[in-house]
Specification:
153 residues, 43% strand
């Protein structure tokens, strides 16, 4: 029996976490997964890293985020280029964590994260050393309602 995704949690560089419920996930692609195991005399830690992450999330999942005087939508916050990992939570109460590719040029902003919010409020995020949103879609198409419907977004 399979397991279904309930939601994902996007963990940011400052340890904040933004949840996206399954009903708002239009597309999720995680690829190039490699596991690492680090051991010392006190512990053994396994971590999974992905070289490619893509998320398309529907506008209806864009919730208010932040303090009263500094509130913004969650999607705008996700677009700031600092997603470090994604936790996938399943309906059988298990979860998986994948650390995203991160450029070493900055500890706070990942130049490999490319984010785009279209005119309808949907967000598209790619995190990869060698690919951007434009490698998956032409941005003008992401503002075309017929294209979005055809693609299932």
């Amino acid at each position: 029996m399979g397991k279904d995704i309930v939601r994902i949690e996007l963990v940011l560089e400052n340890c904040e976490c933004i949840e996206v419920d399954r009903k708002y996930i239009s597309s999720l692609h995680i690829d190039g997964i490699k596991s690492s195991i680090i051991a010392n005399k006190n512990s053994i830690v396994k971590s999974d890293h992905c070289s490619y992450f893509f998320l398309a999330a529907n506008r209806n999942g864009n919730e208010c985020y932040g303090d009263y005087g500094n509130s913004q939508g969650t999607y705008k916050r996700l677009g700031e280029g600092d997603i470090t990992s994604v936790n996938i939570l399943y309906d059988n109460h298990t979860e998986e964590t994948y650390y995203t590719a991160w450029s070493d040029e900055s500890n706070q902003v990942n130049k490999w994260q490319d984010s785009y919010i279209n005119q309808f409020g949907d967000i598209f995020i790619t995190i990869c050393e060698s690919k951007s949103i434009e490698d998956n879609h032409i941005k003008k198409d992401l503002n075309d309602q017929d294209y979005l419907s055809y693609m299932g977004y």
